[in-house]
Amino acid sequence: MNILFAVCGEGLGHASRSTKLAAYLAQHGHTCTFASYGKAHDFIQKQGFPVHEISREVTLGGDDGLFSLAKTLWLSKTVPVSLLHSYRDARRLLTEHHFDLLVADTMYAAGYAAKSLGIPNAFITNQNTFAAAASPDAAYWTYLSRIVQKYLQKVPDIVIVPDFPPPDTISGYNFAIPEAEIDHYRFIGPILDRDPGTVPLSEETIFASFGGEPFKLPLYAMLREIADDMPDHRFEVFSTTPGLPENTQNFRTFGYVPDLQPYLAKSRVAILHGGLTSLMESLSLGKPVVMIIDPYHPEQWNNAKKIEEMGSGIMILGNAVTKEKLDTAIAQALILTPPDLRQLLSALDGRETVRGILESLHSS
User: Gene3D superfamilies, per this entry (predicted)?
Assistant: First the structure.
């Protein structure tokens, strides 16, 4: 198959899991090409895949390191035009390069383009309903949820969820699936590029990654201050955002890293922002997590609730985090024993399952 991946460029979680999947498909004789934008475009290119520029559909904005719906709406005020441009770009690529199939990772217009051309399309997501800790019942989240649910029902041929099947779904609070549509969603397990059981583990560092958006910089600066007060802990911080704090004896920052798993594997605790991709990678290695979640973000809170229920991590609201709270959270995480997920992981091969789904779509 000749496959086009259209990948959301907000953060690197979408690009990370999609490139892992594409690498596996390429090993099985399929040709994979990408379309993305921003830092995800650069990340994909460094992974060695051909990648085309595609118009962004939305621009995330924030204040003091936290997601801001108002700023995002202002920055994305031309969404209808942006979606039209993205649709145009995707349709042109699908036509000019004679792609057999589209895989869209949270890129909506590309799905419409594929459907208009009669090209099978699959949609990767870990969310069809939205809520934030600061406004769980707000009408705008309900409205957005309805729009996305209707899209997922009508446009893609199949919805692929890179998470464990219920009742073990980490992103379970981010889904509301009607009984009649359950077969339209496939919970395939995490998309990992190697068996976690074969990865050497140690407990040497505190791993930290909050995402690569520019408005996260204040959180990284805070973490550097915390590291100064914790000289017995070695911090390794990962972000592609320019302007990160200077390195010190126990605080080291990394830009682009092609594979984060070896760094996670040697951590004692992983400090994350609550996105599904990094949570799944940490849990697959049995690492407890501290989640500094954005209370205004429409995904992180629900993921973090599930992780806490599992006994795998500690949640802190990003708008209330202090050195003292983070010290306490790290201490609590260090004595957690996350549940053993080896049985679940051994029963699921996300990449192979997706390969079967896509080959079936192509042949049908």
Answer: Glycogen Phosphorylase B
